[in-house]
Amino acid sequence: MEAFLERASTDLGTTLFAVTLTKSQAKAIHLDLNVAFVDVIKSLEMNVIYLVARRNGVECKLLVSRTKKSTKFGQGWRKFCVENSLKEGDRLVFEVDHLQKQPIVEVYINRCYCGVAKSIDLV
User: Where is the TF-B3 domain (predicted)?
Assistant: First the structure.
């Protein structure tokens, strides 16, 4: 998916994905995920995950299409956008710790507190 700019690995078992939101993504009811991100999310073996940002977390359902072979953040994505006042141009870094098998994805908005994120080109 062209919206996802880069993937980087941090410590063993942690993966970062970066995206700069388009206007439609910031207002949509779902967010299409790129293949590499889907592989990591599916390794959690969950159909619901929790997107956790600044002050809150939002339950977000995963929509998996077997015919189109696509996966999206579905119900909950719009609420996450509204609660975090997301808009076009916002840069998000999704951090997934897939070794712990917890359905929690940390989301850093317009900043990242991880040293490895410096290697991700968010321009």
Answer: 16-113
